[in-house]
Amino acid sequence: MLIGRDGTDEGALSRRLAVRDAHIALGDKLVAEGRMLFGTALLGEDGNMIGSMLVLDYPSRAELDQWLAVEPYATSGVWEEITISPVRVGPSFVGLHK
Q: Which of 3, 17, 46, 81 has the most CB within a 10 Å radius?
């Protein structure tokens, strides 16, 4: 699971919106490949996007890092803090992504 937290400066939302279409296009590709199982925007109290949470399926950290090297939010300074935690998708959800 990846949690990417956006910057908190005045230009943070503009940076996100500038590359959002590219981020979504890459996400659609990863969904089709079975690499992205779920994704959502994190919202601040004002309803604006302030980060992302993604459940990803990569067999190794090296392959995840290869994706991060081309992920628009990672390469364009949108995500200023990235936390990656291993997770196991629960059995109720496994069949949804086969």
A: 3
